[in-house]
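for the writeup, i need someone to sanity check this before i put it in the appendix. the sequnce is what the collaborator sent (i think, or maybe the updated version? ugh). structure was predicted straight from it, no edits. if anything looks off just tell me and ill rerun, i have time this weekend
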Amino acid sequence: MASQTINGKAFEYALLIEFYERLNNITNVSITENEPYLTAKGFFESFKEEEQDTFRITASASINFLIDIEPRLSNGINQDDILLLELVSDQAGQTGDVRDVLIIRSLQKWEIGISAKNNHRAVKHSRLSQKINFGEKWLGVSCSDDYFKEIKPTFDMLTDLRANDKSTKWSSIENMHEVVYIPILNAFKKELLRLDNENPNLVAENLVQYLIGNQDFYKVIKGNRKVEIQAYNLHGTLNLPFEKVRPKAKIPKLKLPTRLIEIVYQDNSTTTLLVSLNQGWQISFRIHNASSRVEPSLKLDINLVSAPHTLFTNHIFINE
């Protein structure tokens, strides 16, 4: 398992434990000791004590801030109003939920989620192939026959190469960018513009929802001696008051885009498309092969390049 994943899971565990320690004396708190919890705990405990401390100090700094802006964390209605802390299985991400840590008060019908990242900002990893209808999967509207016709020769060539010799390497394809990446990206670009043109207002919004998930959440990014907290408040469920207790800072709602402005290649790149949308959203799509051996599918690393200026962001610096 990649160290990126191990670090990420250890950080999720640190957040859970620090939430518990911080709130346990104020309100009734319970941890769900499910499989994701046990996995994350194992990863956390595999680190040296010093590194564990770093995870916990970073988690603690972000939690102090979250308690200020989420009064319901520390305020229950009564003894039965239990604050439940839970880690989510990775399967949830496939259904458009990017949250790793859930904090739930079922009595208040309230929950918030946290996406925990360790020095890492990639948003989604998706694939393109002859069989994948990205329009249907990401946006809820099907790709056209023209798109599948356009990508067919390239994927047929890759299928043939693999059929002739399973150990064929990507590096053996001459001018790979020109014969594989660019034709696929051009077809993808053309199709995205067509889908947007035929479904005004829908594609831009659904693309962002696919990318950052269909639930409001806080993103907590652990850096070197600092932590960054971003609030993706798309539906207005974050930052709610508890009775007369108001949050100490106001988090604006984020506006989803309504239209696609342009799609261009990143400067001097044959692998990355930049998709610009209104309201200040910009997304990059970088195509690459996932393994060293040829296969008839390609990976896309999808990243949020810029978000609206209304995206609430807070940096906390940590003295260890």
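Helices lie at 3-23, 35-45, 49-69, 134-139, 145-164, 176-198, 202-212. The chain has seven helices and twelve strands.
thx in advance!!
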